[in-house]
């Protein structure tokens, strides 16, 4: 039987863009006596179900944080695992995402010598394959950091050009994406960890104790229902 969205979601007040900080894989694995990498592997089902849930309710933009510019500080084995894992997940899933009408994009520092070329190649193949899709924009933040993004944008400013918010914004990694309305972080940590710093300035933040491998579309729907109860003012008054 097809899964029904929670009735509490108002389809007319859907956020346009939801960001997800997929955290807690290591703790999920540890609780089971498994290596941390088993937690990353278990995150694949969470991602696929979240994407399916987004498609189900007609969400237009979903951005997931897969690897931060600070995650290079992890042990080399885990970094290597994560790079292979991300490349292989994409290899396994890109046709399925493509058939579902998902457009895949990557944000992050691509021309970084630390980032394996095979990962960049696979990312760009997935982008090219899905470029015409319109149902859902799935953006994967890989080797992404908000500081790096703003630095990279500022470096591209023409030396004598006007410097204003528009000049910086238009040079971010994917300026065509709307700002996230809602950022969800799993695993009980209450911080942003350098995710969408510029774009998330007015995002509603939602923290859930669910560990990422246990996250499913119902958790996304519950987050959106909570978002719909919030009052957004953008500095103005109601
Ligand atoms: C999130 O899970 C995945 C990445 C950051 C790549 P973690 O690996 O951070 O899991 P915890 O936070 O240690 O439980
Ligand atoms: C944030 O999680 C990065 C990703 C989910 C990819 P971390 O686990 O790296 O964040 P911190 O170190 O706890 O802030
Ligand atoms: Mg973590």
- Weakly predicted, low-confidence segments: none
In the sheet with the most strands, the strands line up as 3-4-2-1-5-6
User: What portion of residues is helical?
Assistant: 25-40%
Number of E strands: 6
Describe this structure in words.
This protein is α/β, with parallel strands linked by helices and 238 residues long. The chain is 39% helix and 15% strand. The protein contains seven helices and six strands, in the order E-H-H-E-H-E-H-E-H-H-E-E-H. Strands 3-4-2-1-5-6 form a six-stranded parallel beta sheet, with helices on both faces. Strand 3, helix 4 and strand 4 form a beta-alpha-beta unit. The longest helix is centred in the middle third of the chain and has 24 residues, at 76-99. The protein is globular and about 55 Å long. Bound molecules: 3-methylbut-3-enyl trihydrogen diphosphate (2 copies) and magnesium ion (MG). One 3-methylbut-3-enyl trihydrogen diphosphate is lined by residues 22-27, 67, 71, 82, 187.
Short description:
This protein has 238 residues and is an alpha/beta fold. The protein contains seven helices and six strands; from the N terminus they run βααβαβαβααββα. The model has no long low-confidence stretch (mean pLDDT 97).
